[in-house]
Specification:
This protein is α/β, with parallel strands linked by helices. The protein has eight helices and 14 strands. Helix 8 links the parallel strand 12 and strand 13. It comes from Novosphingobium flavum.
């Protein structure tokens, strides 16, 4: 089983638009370190048999898929409807070409409702264009493309986000991005996963995201085998952060591949 981290950055990416010369605000991140250049978060989970599940369609999805040589996925999952997790949805269109049916898509009931309202043409077709994706709720889903799927809801400030656990080939990957507190369902879902990919916006507490201490708390509480930090902002320099975290925790970056 394989995790491909397509993007690892916060909603504005790193560098943020701006800076003294207009070429980007890097904050505390060293511009000379390639792993500090972060696009918006998305991941792919891949089985030994080659099945691929995409989680979230970030605004940088086209670039991310091309960089990793990914030209097809078997299904798409959305954590929630925020722009940095959904507004690359049009980049699914080329992966619809040559398929006999739309790409399967899944999300929590509220996420599905919001996505259908915002991107109706993706899920129903329009003006002679094929339906790109057929979206359904997660309620009855237990298996997708040979990969086991489980989920729970997390608080994301006043909103909610969906956490996922993927099981295949005797290995487990947990994915928890955009959460602001830890609940029992999360601990149960991620209990002893082989790999936990976890939200880690910055070191200081934040009203809608996990900070470093909370990220490490979730990893410890679930007894995750490995942990990778994601959704990192411009205060989280790769080298500085890598030097202060435990040995079984790594700083995520765009293009990181972890094979279990």
């Amino acid at each position: 089983m394989k995790l491909i981290m397509l993007g690892s950055g916060t909603s504005t990416g790193v560098p943020r638009i701006g800076g003294p010369d207009g070429r980007g605000d890097w904050g505390d991140c060293d511009p000379a370190e390639p792993r500090n250049r972060r696009s918006r978060v998305s991941i792919v989970v891949e089985s030994d048999a080659g099945s691929r599940l995409l989680v979230d369609t970030s605004p940088d999805l086209r670039h991310q898929l091309l960089a990793q040589g990914i030209d097809k996925v078997d299904a798409v999952f959305w954590t929630h409807d925020h722009a940095d997790h959904t507004h690359g949805i049009d980049d699914l269109r080329p992966m619809r070409y040559g398929r006999a049916a739309p790409i399967p898509g899944y999300g929590h009931e509220e996420t599905v409702r919001r996505l259908r309202n915002r991107f109706g043409y993706v899920f129903a077709g329009q003006h002679g264009y094929h339906t790109i994706c057929e979206i359904q709720t997660l309620d009855r889903l237990r298996m997708c493309a040979g990969i086991g799927v489980a989920w729970c809801q997390m608080d994301h400030g006043p909103a909610q986000s969906t956490a996922f656990r993927f099981d295949c080939d005797g290995k487990t990957i947990g994915y928890a991005t955009d959460f602001s507190s830890i609940n029992k369902d999360m601990i149960d879902l991620f209990w002893r996963v082989d790999l936990l990919v976890v939200d880690c916006l910055r070191r200081e507490p934040h009203p809608t995201h996990a900070h470093l201490a909370m990220s490490l708390e979730l990893a410890s509480a679930t007894k995750a085998g490995q942990t990778a930090l994601t959704h990192l902002d411009k205060s989280m320099d790769y080298a500085a952060l890598a030097a202060e975290i435990p040995d079984n925790v790594r700083v995520g970056y765009d293009g990181l591949v972890i094979t279990l």
